[in-house]
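Record type: monomer structure entry
Structure origin: computed from sequence
Chain ID: A
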Amino acid sequence: MLKLPKVISVVCGFFFVLAACKSNSGSREKYRPAKDSSADIQVPGGTNMAPATYKIFIENSGSMNGYVTVNSAFKNAVMGFITDLKTKDIASQLNIYYINKQICPQKENAQPNEIKYFFQNLNPVSFNASGCGTTTSYIPEIIKRVADSVKTDVNVLISDFIFSDSEGTSPAYLEAAQHTIKLYLAEALMSQNFATVIVKLNSNFDGKYYIESKRPAVADFSGHPISRPYYMVIFGKPAQLRPMLDKINFGQYKGYENSCYLFPPGKQSIDAKIVLNDKIGQFQASFPATNLMINHAAMGNDRNGEKVFQFSLAANLDHLKTDKNYLLDVSQYELPVNYRLVSVKETGPLAGPGLEGYTHLFTLQTTALQPDQDVYLRLKPRLPGWVEASSTNDDSNPADTLQQHKTFGFAYLVKGMSDAYTNHYADAAQFALKVKVSKDNAGGQGTRSGFPWWIIVAIVALLGVVFLLKRRS
């Protein structure tokens, strides 16, 4: 027979282990580490995906000559980008091509010394001596050639993206070109799931500018350069693009202005939880907070004394590579008609307790709290405002300061691309979160009271055992 002290020791040990297991389990639920975005880049077998082959296509039509003069920002930025692809172990192989009405290989599997030599000798003369000529290019056809060959490679098209063709340059033609790009890209998306990244930069331009809205007018800036925008459009499967987006900051390149991202809808789940930041009114969050369930919701008074209900969500959007300003623009999100998005904030490196591992804080508010409602928050694929601001249908005065930041017909090009994505992935959001908000206790089964009542029950049970053993002894 076990003696009383030993029995008590065994029972206490049992409850100690139980308490430790309970405590550790709760800790893992509440403070689980943020999802590592690199975990999405996997191939069968669990190994990281090998670096991709990068194909660099530089348009060499006549309108590009002004960018490739000595010491142009264009050459420095493009060479910097290609160098980073190589030195940061992003590209397994680099192939450089010229492209207009055909593709002309320049450097296959380019080595560092060959890359240096290529850019040192990149000029209007080398453009003409490429074997491609420098004839007028039809941008939709160029985009089709580059997008069709994505497969397992990442293709980078570098061009001024000025619509120019023998058919003319009227607004009607631009709309037709937009529809053509939409058709070509939609066709490519049918056979392969790829993303498109559009990067806008500017450079000194020393050469002839062909005025598209006043053809065949030409403005010659040789010897007295102006500034002109150009673009890098990058096509690749999301997993293949991930290393580039993680390791390269386009803002470091001279002349960088903006970027735009057209991604297939993300299938990975978003880490998110309910937090008490900026709350107005009362509620209980179902435990763990990552359940995204709110119970006993009640209205409160805002600063103006109006009745509102307000709560916040912390989310980890680290894997969602897109324009920073786009994510912070409240107008880019969809919510139920009775809710509005008060703010979107970056949590920053000095995030407060409970926000570690979460990148953004969303604050939602309603003046019409429903008894029971699924409140959704969706980021829909929309074009940022800079796309429209970078476009013009009248380029008749290229020396004008404002026109030096605009490209003839550019918005038509990007809208054609965007339409291909929105049509192919109909009603798909870049990400979506849903919170169940109830005035009653709809999610009460997981609501945490905050006090560990089970410990009290365990102590009472232990005392009962001790009492019985004492009576028997």
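Annotation 1: The chain has eleven helices and 21 strands.
Annotation 2: The longest strand covers residues 195-205.
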